[in-house]
Amino acid sequence: MDAIQTDAAGPVLSVRGITKRFGGVTALAGVSLELRSGEVHCLAGENGCGKSTLIKIISGVERPDAGEIIMDGETHSRMNATAAITSGVQVIYQDFSLFPNLSVAENIVLTAEVAGRQRFYRARAIRPKAQAIVEELGLDLDLDSEVGELSVADKQLTAICRALVNDARVIIMDEPTTALTHSEVARLFTVVERLRARGVALVFVSHKLEEVLAISQRVTIMRSGRVVTSGLATDFDRRSIAQHMTGAELDETRVVSPLDPDARARLTVSHLDLPGAFHDVSFTVAPGEILGVTGLLGSGRTEIAEAIFGARPAASGDILVDGLPVSIRSIPDAVAAGIGYVPEDRLSQGLFLEKSIADNIIAGSLDRHRNRWRGLDGMRIRSTISRLFASLSIKAPNAEAPVRSLSGGNAQRVVLAKWLATDPKVLLLNGPTVGVDVGSKSQILELLRKAASSGMAIVVISDDAPELVSCCHRVLVVARGRVVDVLEGDAISAESIHERMAA
Amino acid sequence: MQTLRRFRGKNNEGVLALVLLALIITMSMLSPAFLTAGTAFSTLRSATVPLIFALAVLVVIVSGGIDVSFAAVAIFSAYTAVSFAITTAPDLPAAAIIAMAIVIGAGLGLINGIVIARFRLPTLIVTLGTQGIFVGVMYTYIGATYYAQLPPSLAAMSSMTVIDFQTGTGRASLHVMAVVAIVLAIVVWWMLTRTMFGRSLYAIGGDVEAARRAGFRVMRTQVLVYVLVGVLAAIAGIAHMVMGRSANPQDLVGDELDIIAAVVLGGASIFGGRGSVIGTVLGVILIQVINNSLLLAGVPSAWLRAAVGLLLIVGVGVQAVAARKKARRVHTLDEDKSDRLVQEGAA
């Protein structure tokens, strides 16, 4: 206890000059950070700026190529996972890192038991420990249910409980509030204050500006693997943080093409319903229109797109393409109807990573490139590939490079190219710019505008308000599985979207 | 409802127990010779070697791997120890022969474990490869002779029984190796549920990456798993020879899939993280009882394998369909926890 008091002035944990490369990509370039006890330190930055890698290095999961980690005055050139936990560093990962096959109680307590080098597992002695944490946080968690059966929010709460069960002195939370409702976030913040009073240093990793300012004392902002700025939270406001994060003025200018008011809807969705996911969803998308669909995580926004694409077909309701009703029970049905879908997790769902850019571009549209004898028409394939490779300005030496070697932004362009090659009538995109750097982001949005102007109907599912503002004609706000609001024209602004999403 | 769920068990062990019970009741009604201590003990006897193997397979499957080399390890280690005793040291005590087999089994398991954990290779491929290597090495360097007689110390164990009494229908005796299998089952059960090593197997089988982040020493645990499989396999190999009163290097290898089938039927998930000793024991016994009772009922033995195969697909299929239904349930909105919290927050 004394140790904590004397440390109060100095840093509990500091990292100096951390560098980390993955293959040819530099994820971190000389990053330094200091954490003091009793403070909430916000680590902000866009997706892919190196925040997650930094956390992994602090918690001993990744080994840095250079630099040092100083915990309690002791210098480590690298941590290992157990040393990090025993010295009091706890991470709540974005993917929770829970064991789906074990009970809530066991998930909460197991890491502490591992760190304590326990040989025996005493289920009876362990339960009260888990119970105590759950009660301290005032949570409603069934300790005996299996984690795999919990909702996303409950899984996250379990992960938070797990971090607290050890006497953590540094708690790092990676995007902790994304899946929580407003009241749950408020509750988390009360707990955070309580921990702060006990002298715990907290790192809040987030790209949500409001949160950053509400909870933190100090802010460090990263961009492309470097620390751009660091200082007291009171010295920043929403605009200046965004500026540092993106390296550009917050660009929320709207560029939308005028629509033909008489055109028949490309996509009509009426009274679509999937119990447990969404209810009574109706909307239309005109040719050339970009429709935004937004909502919190778990609001049903992804499920709606997956239902239209047939990945998780709706239980009832109608889908019409160009005014003709189509029955979509599976993905091939949707593709046949001219619907394309760029999934949220493009690395696992949208690309063949080991294959070349060319193969990936053509993978979805082989049927469109057949010759008279059902063989593949090499000439047309080559022309499609070179046309898309050039028009999407994919940064690679040539189209034969494997997709794995590409950065996030360029990989995303390949997914886009794959779907553009099929020339769909309707293109659904889920988080089209997640994990993409700022430059690529505006280029991808420009590509979407261009695709729309050729008459395609585009649906963008995203919780990135500026992105929706900049390219969407209309924005549907989804909450608890229902369309609760439709924003149009001048009503679309980052503030109005945030406001409606949270409502 | 709660007691019902508890009886059903995490991996449908309760359902399996009911099926077994129903089968026993049906058979007892059909044939009065069925429900006797003699039948029970002989079922246990025939289940001994499969059970020890199944325990080994259970441990690997829980950790998220698979091992198809255990039978090769068993025959390699037991045959090597026995043939060493026969050819060079006929007076070796049984304990020394068994210890020798166990050490050899552990060594072979270590090879599997190191290759798998160090190079992060798929467990099926590695053990498929080592299975062939072990058998080949045994034929080439140890020998391929069939020994109709065990060394005297082991031969003495062949007729050793723990319980032995006369009943109306004949003699009923419980072989000492059946007791060994039961003790091993209890030890493995204790290890899986009461030790951190056991829990780490479930954790690794559930999510390797999460286990690594939580500080489990994944590589070390994986190596230990295969060593443990080697040890159990060696004991099974010795048990097989003792009960069969001979040492045949061509035995055991080839029946691996039957054992894996029993473990999977017992509720273990082939994807790791799930499985219990109770389920495994029930799975093994169920298959033995089916074999015995179908024979008693006069079904040609060719159909036994078909029956077990059918049972496996139906048993696993029912579980898989139920699990898929559960997974398809979307967790977002119809459970109104978030609404309730909002209301509480407002109040």
Q: How would you describe this structure to a colleague?
A:
Chain A has 503 residues and is an alpha/beta fold. Chain A folds into 3 domains: 2-246, 3-Layer(aba) Sandwich (Rossmann fold), CATH 3.40.50.300; 263-338 and 426-503, Rossmann fold (3-Layer(aba) Sandwich), CATH 3.40.50.300; 356-423, no CATH class. Chain A has 18 helices and 20 strands. In chain A, strand 11 (267-274) and strand 12 (278-285) form a beta hairpin. In chain B, strands 1-2 form a two-stranded antiparallel ribbon. The longest helix of chain B is centred in the middle third of the chain and has 27 residues, at 218-244. At the A-B interface, helix 3, helix 4, helix 6 and helix 7 of A face helix 9, helix 10 and helix 15 of B.
Category by helix and strand content of chain B: mainly alpha
Overall form of chain B: globular
Number of domains of chain A: 3
Please state the second-level CATH architecture of the largest domain in chain A: 3-Layer(aba) Sandwich
**Order of secondary-structure elements of chain B:** HHHHHHHEEHHHHHHHH
Number of strands of chain A: 20
- In the sheet with the most strands of chain B, the strands line up as 1-2
Count of alpha and pi helical runs of chain B = 15
Strand content of chain A: 15-25%
CATH architecture of chain B: Orthogonal Bundle
The structural class of chain A is alpha/beta
Quaternary structure type: heterodimer
Describe the protein's topology.
The complex is a heterodimer of chains A (503) and B (347).
Chain A: H1 2-7, E1 11-22, E2 25-36, E3 40-44, H2 51-58, E4 66-71, E5 74-76, H3 81-86, E6 89-92, H4 104-115, H5 123-136, H6 152-165, E7 170-174, H7 182-197, E8 201-206, H8 209-215, E9 218-223, E10 226-232, H9 238-246, E11 267-274, E12 278-285, E13 290-294, H10 301-308, E14 316-321, E15 324-326, H11 331-336, E16 339-342, H12 346-349, H13 357-362, H14 378-391, H15 408-421, E17 426-430, H16 438-453, E18 457-461, H17 465-471, E19 474-479, E20 482-488, H18 494-502
Parallel strand pairs in A: 3-8, 3-9, 6-7, 7-8, 13-18, 13-19, 16-17, 17-18
Antiparallel strand pairs in A: 1-2, 1-4, 4-5, 9-10, 11-12, 11-14, 14-15, 19-20
Chain B: H1 2-8, H2 13-30, H3 37-62, H4 70-87, H5 94-119, H6 123-142, H7 152-158, E1 161-167, E2 170-175, H8 176-194, H9 196-206, H10 208-213, H11 218-244, H12 256-265, H13 277-296, H14 302-328, H15 337-346
Helix pairs in contact in B: 2-13, 3-8, 3-9, 3-11, 3-12, 3-13, 4-5, 4-6, 4-11, 5-6, 5-11, 8-9, 9-11, 12-13, 12-14, 13-14
